Amino acid sequence: HLESAARLRPADAEARYRLGALLRDLGKREAALAELDEAVRVDRTHPRAAYERALALHDLGRYADAEKALEDFLFAFPADPFTDVARRMLEELRAP
Predict the structure, then answer these.
(1) C or N: which end of the chain has fewer Cβ atoms within 10 Å?
(2) Is 52 in contact with 21 (CB distance < 8 Å)?
(3) In the chain, how many H helices and how many E strands?
(4) For the chain, how many structural domains are there in total?
(5) 46-51: long-range contacts at Cβ-Cβ below 8 A with a sequence spacing of 24 or more?
(6) CB of 39 within 8 A of CB of 7?
(7) Can you tell me the mean pLDDT for 45-60?
(8) What is residue 63's predicted lDDT score, i.e. its pLDDT?
(9) What angle do CA 69, 17, 90 make, to 5 degrees?
(10) For the whole model, what pTM was predicted?
(11) Range of the domain at 74
(12) Residue 62 is part of a domain; what is its CATH number?
C-alpha cells in the first residue's frame, strides 16, 4: 500500500519516507535511498526523511555523503529527538 500511495501522490513526503524506511528495513538499499531522496526533495522540513536518508547513505557505504547528510540534519533540526544518535554516528564517521 505504501508503494501505491507514493506513486499515486508523488508529492506526499510522508508516504515516500515511510516507503523508503520500509525498503531500507527490507535491505533494498538503492530503492530506499531513491524514495528518501524524493521525500527530502518534496519536503525539506521532514526530519525523519532527512535522518533516514543519512542512514541509507551509510548503509550503501557512501560515508562522505552520509556525513554531509547528518550535518545537514543536525543543522536543520537541532531539537529533533534523533540528534543525539545522529551526533554519535557523525563522530564515528569522523573518527580515524
Answers:
(1) C
(2) yes
(3) 6, 0
(4) 1
(5) 46/13, 46/14, 46/17, 47/73, 47/76, 47/77, 47/80, 47/82, 48/17, 48/21, 48/82, 49/13, 49/16, 49/17, 49/20, 50/76, 50/77, 51/77, 51/80, 51/82, 51/86
(6) no
(7) 98
(8) 98
(9) 25
(10) 0.89
(11) 2-94
(12) 1.25.40.10
